[in-house]
Amino acid sequence: MPTMDSLKPASRYTNEEVEWHRLAELSTSNRPDMTVCQTLWTVDFWLIFIVMATGASTAIAAINNLSQIGRALHVNDVKFFVGLVSIWSCFGRLTGGFLPDILLKKGVPRPVSLCFSTGMISITHLVLKSGAIRLGSVMIGFCYGSYWSITPPITSEIFGLTHFAATYKTVT
C-alpha cells in the first residue's frame, strides 16, 4: 500500500494533508485491540450499547408504525412518508459519515455525534406526537440513518480493529 511519502515529494504537502496524516497516525497508534469478552467489562461498551438500544430501537419502532400514525392523523397517502424516511435515511448516513470527521478535526469527539443523533430522535418523537408527520418522517429517517455511519468508527476507535466485526455486532 502506498504511503504519503511515496505519493508526493515532501515539499508539495499542504498543511491540511500533514495534519490529516498526523491524526491518522495518532488514532491508530494508541488504539487498543480488545476481544468481545474484554469489551463487555468496559463502561464504554455499555454506554454505546444503551444509546444504540434506546435510540435506534425507538427510531425503528416509529418507522415500523408510520402507517398507523398516518392513519390516526387521517393522512391519505402514507407511502409518501415511508419514502421520505428512506430518502432522508440516505442523507443521514452520508452526513453521519463526514460530519463527525470534520468535528473530530476541530476537537469534538465522535461520540458527541452519536449523542446528538439520540437527542434528535427524542425531539423527533415529540414532533410526531404533535402531528407533523412530514417533518417527523424526515427527522426520523435522518437520525436513524446517521446511527449506522457513526457507530462503526466509534466502535473501532474505542475497542480496536482486531475483533471489530464481533464487537460491532455485539454493540448493535
From TrEMBL:
Start and end residues of each NFD4 C-terminal domain: 36-170
Alphabetical keyword list: Membrane, Transmembrane, Transmembrane helix
TM regions (residue ranges): 45-66, 78-99
Task: Provide the protein's localization.
Answer: Membrane
Cellular component annotations (GO), alphabetically ordered: membrane
Q: What is the topology of this protein in the membrane according to its UniProt annotation?
A: Multi-pass membrane protein
The cross-references to InterPro entries, in alphabetical order and at most eight, read: MFS_trans_sf (IPR036259), NFD4_C (IPR056555)
| PANTHER family registered for this protein in UniProt | NODULIN-LIKE (PTHR21576:SF120), UNCHARACTERIZED NODULIN-LIKE PROTEIN (PTHR21576)
In Swiss-Prot or TrEMBL terms, this protein is called NFD4 C-terminal domain-containing protein
The taxonomic lineage of its organism, from the top, reads: Eukaryota, Viridiplantae, Streptophyta, Charophyceae, Charales
